[in-house]
Design brief:
Length: 954
C-alpha cells in the first residue's frame, strides 16, 4: 500500500538527484537562503555568548569578595539604593535645603569579622614611546584571593613590590611598551618596572596600570601638587568578605550611614520590588522594558524577517520554476505512469525542501564555525570577553527552520503551476497559455489604496513613524501583488520598440508566471533602496541647512584647559608651525583662585566668575523671582505673552555657536576680530584703548560698562542661588564698547583686552589660540599635527572649520550597488527561465541561418526588460514611504517648535526646515545604468551558439 511517506520519499530522492545535476542553479538558491541564516545564527551565537551569567558578572566586578562598598558623595546622610547599587537617593529630600554632598568614611559600616581590600583609581598622564597617554591608575592588590577574576593575567605576573606595576594589554599596545619596560609619569621622576600584562574582561579597550596600594597615586599626587599642578582625582572603594555574606538587611544598614553596596548575595537573590524602599519613593521605580515595548520590538523583528523571506522567495521562486520547466518531461512521465497532481507538486516542493534543508545545515554550521573562529575578533569589537561559547540548540533549530520554510515557500508557485500542466503538454514540450488571475490584482489594488491611506493618515494626522512605515509596507505588498497586471500594461509599449526588444517584451508579458516574480523581487529591492535614498538625501539637505559653522571657513582653533595653561604656548607654536597660518590670535581666560584650576573642575581653592546681566536686560521668561526661586518664571505669563516675549531681543540667542569657551568671554587683542572675520574699526580701536568689546548688548549696563563677579566661595554661591539671594563675590566693572549690528561672532560674546584685565586685577591663564589660514589645511598636514599633539599627552581640542561635510555619497553608492546586484540577480534568473522556454525557437533560428548574435541579443534584451520593469515600478513605489516619513518628521518638529513658544522656552529659532529631496542621480543610475548593465552582462555570458538539434514536431 502506497502511503504519503513513500510518495514523499520518492519525491525527495528525485529532487535530490535534480539538485545534484543542476549544481549551478542549486548553489545559487542555496547561497541566497544560507547567507541570511549564516548571519542570523552567528548573531545569535555572539549575543548569547556575550551575555554573562550572574556568577560570571560578579567575578568580573568583585572577584571572590562578598560585596563592594562605595561612597556616593552625599556626606554620610542616610540613603536608599536599588539592589544593584547603581541608583540611590537620600532618605530625606527637602527642596528648601541644598542637596547633600561630601565624603564619608566607608570603613565605618564594616560588620564584625569583615576582611577588606582597598581598590583606588585615578587618572594620570604616563610617558610612552610616542609621548604621553592619559591612563587610569588602579591600586589594588590583585594577587589577593579576594580579587581573583578581576584582572586575569595574560603574561608575566602581578606587582609584588612598590616599584613594580602591571598594565593592560591595550595599554601596552597603545604605548609601545612591553613587559620589562620602565614606566614614568609626567611630573614624577620615579620609574616603575612593568612586570606583567593583564586584561579587564569587561573593558578590553581600557588603558590601565595596576600598582600596589599606596605605591603610585599618593607619591604622584605629592609630586604634582608640590609643582603647583593638580594631582589625579582618586576614588576608593572597598572589597569586603563577611561571614554569612552581605545580605539585603546588611546593605540597608550600610545605607543608613550613607554608603552604597554592591552585594553578591543580593545579586544572586534580589529582593522583591516591594521590599526595596527606593522603589516606593515618588518618581522612583524599577524601570524595565514594558510588555508593549517588547511586543513592538518583536513585531519589528518579525516584519524584517518576513520581508527578507519574501525577497528571497521572489528571487528563488523563478529558479525553482527554471528547474521545473527543464524537468517537465520527467514530470510528464510521472503523470503518464499513474502519478496525479499531488505527486507532481510533491516533487517540485521537495526541491525546495532539499535546498532549504541544505541551506539550513550549511548556514548554521558556517555560523558556528565562523563565530568560533572569529571569537577573538568579535570580543575585541564588543570590548569584552565572552562568558562562554553559548550554543542554544533550540534557537539555532528555529533559525534553521526558517531556511526550510523559505525553500518551501519559494517552491509553492512553481509546484502549483507544474501540477496544472497536462501530461501531453509536458511530454511534447508544448506550453499551455493560462489567463492571469483576476483576484490577485484586485487584492493588490485594495492593499495599495489601504496602505497609501494609512501612510497618508500617519504623516498628516499623527506623529507615529510606525503608522507610516506600516502603511507603506502594506502598499508595497499591494504593488507586488499587482505586478502581473502591471507587467501586462508594459506590453502595450512594445509597438514602439525595435524588433529584438519587442520580442523580449512580448515574451515577458506572455509568460508572466516567470516574469512577475523576478520583477517583484527587483521592485521590492529598488523600492527599499529608493525609500532610503530619498530619506537620506532629504535628511542630508536638512543637515546642510541647519549646519552652523564654529569658525570662518578654513580657520583653526586650539583650546586646552588643564595645568594652568602650562603647555598652551608649546601647542600654539606647534599648530602655527605645521599649518599654513596667516594670523594667530592668542586667547586667555579669566582664572579665579588657583592658576592650575580648570574651568569646570570643582576643586578646593578653585573659584569661578560670572558676567552680571542688568535686571532691565534679563529675559522675563528666564528671570527667577528671588522670593520664589523654585517657580518657573514663565508660568506667570499666558501663552500669547510667552510667544510675544520669545521675539523680544532679551530672549534671543545671538552670535551663533562656536568652539567651547568660558561663557563666551575671551581675553584677547584685535587679532581675534580679524581671524573671526569681524571688520569693525571701532571695535579694534576700543581694544587698543583697553576697553572691553561686547557683541551682546544684554551684558552692558546703564553706565556703559560690564560687571564681572569673582566667586571664590563656590559653595556659598550655590547656596545663595538656591535660596534666591544675591551671590557673594567681588565685582569688577570694566568700560565696554558695544558693537552695533549682529555680526557672526561664532559664540564669542565679550573680548577683554589683556591690558584691561591687568588693570582690573583679573587673573588670566592661557587657554588657546585662533588662526586664519591662507588655504585649507591638507590631510597630510592635519595628520602630522594630530601626531604632534598626541605626543604632548594633553587634552587638546582642535577644530578646523571645513564647512558641512556630507557623508551621504557613501550611503547612496552602497544603496545603488545593493539594488543593482539584486536587480541583476533577479533579471538573470528570469532570463535563464526565458531561455529554457525559448530553446526550441532558438534552435529553429539557428537552423534557418540566423546570425549567432541573435541568441546574445535576445538574451540581453530579455534581461534588460525584466530589470527595467522592476526598476521603474520600484522607483515609483519607494518614494511613498520616504515622503510619508519626512512629512511625519515635519509635523513632529513643528509640534516641538510650537510647544517651545507656548511654554516660553524662548529662542526657539527659525521654523523647522524639513525638505523632501528626490535623489535624481541615484534614480538615473537605477533607471538607466542598472537595466543597461544587466542587459550587457546577460549578453556577454550567453553562448552565441547552442547545440544544433532536430526540432520536435508539436
Amino acid at each position: 500500500m502506497t502511503t504519503w511517506y513513500h510518495s514523499w520519499r520518492a519525491a525527495i530522492r528525485i529532487a535530490r538527484r535534480d539538485a545534484w545535476r543542476s549544481k549551478g542553479r542549486s548553489f545559487l538558491v542555496l547561497a541566497m537562503i544560507a547567507l541570511p541564516i549564516l548571519g542570523v545564527s552567528a548573531a545569535d551565537l555572539t549575543v548569547r555568548s556575550a551575555e554573562l551569567s550572574t556568577e560570571q558578572s560578579l567575578e568580573r566586578r568583585i572577584g571572590a569578595a562578598d560585596a563592594r562598598l562605595s561612597d556616593p558623595g552625599m556626606g554620610g546622610v542616610p540613603i536608599l539604593q536599588a539592589p544593584d547599587g547603581n541608583n540611590y537617593a537620600p532618605v530625606e529630600e527637602d527642596d528648601d535645603k541644598p542637596y547633600p554632598e561630601g565624603r564619608t568614611d566607608i570603613a565605618k559600616v564594616l560588620p564584625a569579622g569583615a576582611k577588606t581590600l582597598t581598590d583606588t583609581t585615578g587618572f594620570a598622564k604616563l610617558r610612552t614611546t610616542h609621548g604621553l597617554l592619559s591612563t587610569e591608575i588602579r591600586e589594588l592588590k590583585a594577587a589577593d584571593p579576594m580579587a581573583r577574576g578581576i584582572m586575569p593575567v595574560v603574561s608575566g605576573r602581578l606587582p609584588q613590590k612598590s616599584d613594580e606595576v602591571a598594565a593592560t594589554t591595550h595599554f601596552l599596545e597603545s604605548s609601545g611598551l612591553k613587559v620589562g619596560s620602565k614606566l614614568t609619569a609626567r611630573g614624577f621622576d620615579r620609574a616603575y618596572t612593568i612586570v606583567g600584562a593583564y586584561e579587564l574582561p569587561d573593558q578590553l579597550d581600557s588603558d590601565q596600570v595596576n600598582a600596589l596600594p599606596g605605591a603610585l597615586i599618593r607619591p604622584l599626587t605629592e609630586a604634582l601638587e608640590s609643582a603647583g599642578l593638580p594631582g589625579p582625582s582618586a576614588g576608593t572603594t572597598l572589597l569586603v568578605t563577611v561571614p554569612g555574606g552581605f545580605t539585603w538587611n546588611k546593605v540597608q544598614e550600610a545605607n543608613t550611614k550613607g554608603v552604597t553596596v554592591f552585594s553578591r548575595a543580593v545579586a544572586l537573590n534580589p529582593p522583591a520590588d516591594s521590599d526595596v524602599p527606593l522603589f516606593q519613593k515618588e518618581g522612583w521605580s524599577n524601570y524595565e522594558e514594558s510588555t508593549a515595548a517588547k511586543a513592538a520590538a518583536l513585531a519589528a523583528v518579525g516584519t524584517v524577517v518576513g520581508l527578507a523571506m519574501l525577497e528571497i522567495c521572489l528571487l528563488a521562486g523563478p529558479a525553482f520554476a527554471v528547474g521545473a520547466r527543464r524537468s517537465r518531461r520527467q514530470l510528464g512521465l510521472v503523470g503518464a505512469n499513474g502519478g496525479d497532481r499531488r505527486h507532481i507538486r510533491a516533487i517540485v516542493l521537495a526541491g525546495g525542501l532539499v535546498i532549504g534543508v541544505a541551506a539550513a545545515v550549511v548556514g548554521t554550521l558556517l555560523g558556528l564555525v565562523l563565530t568560533f573562529a572569529l571569537q577573538p575578533v568579535l570580543e575585541d569589537y564588543l570590548g569584552q570577553r565572552f562568558g562562554s561559547f553559548d550554543v542554544r540548540p533550540l534557537e539555532l533549530l528555529g533559525i534553521a527552520l526558517l531556511a526550510v520554510l523559505t525553500g518551501l515557500l519559494a517552491a509553492i508557485v512553481p509546484a502549483i503551476t507544474s501540477s496544472r500542466q497536462s501530461v501531453l503538454a509536458s511530454l511534447t514540450g508544448r506550453r499551455g497559455v493560462r489567463r492571469s488571475s483576476r483576484v490577485l490584482p484586485v487584492i493588490g489594488l485594495v492593499a495599495v489604496a489601504l496602505g497609501a491611506s494609512i501612510a497618508l493618515y500617519g504623516s498628516t494626522m499623527t506623529d507615529q513613524f510606525a503608522v507610516v512605515a506600516g502603511g507603506s509596507a502594506l502598499a508595497e505588498l499591494g504593488v507586488v501583488a499587482l505586478t502581473p497586471a502591471l507587467v501586462g500594461l508594459f506590453g502595450r509599449t512594445g509597438r514602439l520598440l525595435p524588433l529584438s526588444p519587442r520580442l523580449a517584451l512580448r515574451d515577458a508579458v506572455r509568460n508572466r508566471g516567470r516574469t512577475a516574480p523576478a520583477v517583484a523581487a527587483v521592485l521590492a529591492a529598488v523600492a527599499g533602496t529608493v525609500a532610503v535614498a530619498t530619506y537620506a538625501a532629504s535628511d542630508d539637505r536638512q543637515r546642510r541647512a541647519e549646519y552652523e559653522a564654529q569658525l570662518p571657513h578654513g580657520a583653526v582653533s586650539v583650546m586646552m584647559d588643564e595645568a594652568g595653561g602650562r603647555d598652551v604656548p608649546g601647542v600654539r607654536a606647534t599648530v602655527q608651525k605645521l599649518l599654513p597660518v596667516d594670523m594667530r590670535a592668542d586667547v586667555d581666560r579669566i582664572a579665579v583662585g588657583k592658576r592650575n584650576c580648570s574651568m569646570y573642575e570643582p576643586r578646593e581653592g578653585c573659584g569661578r566668575y560670572e558676567v552680571i546681566v542688568p535686571k532691565a536686560h534679563e529675559c522675563p521668561l528666564w528671570a527667577v523671582d528671588p522670593a520664589k526661586p523654585d517657580e518657573d518664571p514663565a508660568e506667570k505669563f499666558s501663552k500669547a505673552e510667552r510667544r510675544k516675549l520669545a521675539e523680544d531681543w532679551r530672549c534671543q540667542h545671538t552670535g551663533g555657536h562656536g568652539v567651547a569657551t568660558d561663557a563666551g568671554l575671551l581675553v584677547a587683542d584685535a587679532k581675534l576680530l580679524t581671524v573671526l572675520g569681524i571688520d569693525d574699526p571701532a571695535a579694534e580701536r576700543a581694544l587698543a584703548a583697553g576697553r572691553v568689546v561686547s557683541f551682546d548688548k544684554r551684558n552692558v549696563n546703564a553706565r556703559g560698562s560690564v560687571d564681572i563677579r569673582l566667586i571664590t566661595d563656590t559653595e556659598a554661591a550655590d547656596r545663595a542661588m538656591e535660596q534666591g539671594k544675591e551671590v557673594p563675590g567681588e565685582i569688577k566693572s570694566l568700560p565696554v564698547h558695544q558693537v552695533t549690528g549682529t555680526p557672526e561672532t561664532y559664540g564669542v560674546k565679550l573680548v577683554v583686552p589683556p591690558a584691561a584685565a591687568r588693570q582690573a586685577g583679573l587673573g588670566t591663564v592661557p587657554i588657546g589660540a585662533y588662526y586664519s589660514t591662507g588655504e585649507m589645511p591638507t590631510s597630510e598636514q592635519r595628520q602630522k599635527l594630530d601626531a604632534e599633539l598626541d605626543r604632548t599627552g594633553a587634552d587638546v581640542s582642535l577644530h578646523i572649520e571645513e564647512g558641512y561635510i556630507s557623508e551621504n555619497s557613501i550611503v547612496m553608492l552602497a544603496l545603488t550597488v545593493f539594488a543593482g546586484l539584486i536587480t541583476i540577480g533577479a533579471a538573470g534568473i528570469a532570463t535563464g527561465l526565458a531561455q529554457a522556454d525559448a530553446e526550441a525557437d532558438l534552435k529553429t533560428l539557428a537552423a534557418v541561418g540566423a546570425p549567432p548574435r541573435v541568441r546574445r541579443t535576445l538574451s540581453g534584451f530579455q534581461c534588460g526588460v525584466v530589470a527595467a520593469m522592476g526598476v521603474v515600478l520600484g522607483s515609483a513605489a519607494g518614494v511613498l514611504p520616504a515622503v510619508g516619513l519626512r512629512l511625519t518628521e515635519k509635523r513632529q518638529q513643528m509640534g516641538w517648535y510650537q510647544q517651545a513658544l507656548d511654554n516660553g522656552w524662548g529662542g526657539a529659532g527659525e521654523l523647522p526646515y524639513v525638505p523632501i529631496v528626490v535623489p535624481w542621480e541615484t534614480l538615473a543610475t537605477l533607471l538607466v545604468a542598472v537595466p543597461v548593465g544587466a542587459a550587457l552582462l546577460a549578453a556577454l555570458v550567453t553562448r552565441s551558439r547552442g547545440a544544433l538539434a532536430r526540432r520536435e514536431a508539436t
